[in-house]
Amino acid sequence: MLNRFLQIQILIMILLPWIGIGCDSDREAVRIENQDFRKVTASSGLVLREEPNTTSTKLALIPLGTEVQVLEEKAEKVQIGDTSGRWVRVNHNGIRGWVFGEYLASPSKQ
Q: Which structural domain, as residue segments, surrounds residue 36?
């Protein structure tokens, strides 16, 4: 009986990663599968932040027209001032952080 119990525990431990239990719990973020690049459209530049909120540590100021690589995008829209949009995680010159996505555009739309 004890041997059977141990077999079931081992089987559960093996199967957990396959069924998604215990995996990354950040389900509100949408991963971008392809190589998505966008350009900054904010005339005064766009603040790159450590976390997706306006009070998070500023990592850099990305100048107007700079192209950044999109890594992921939050599914939930938020309101910042009069503008509604999503937080987007980007790679800018090797620095990864979050920007407010309403100030990014596809290079073809620039």
A: 26-109
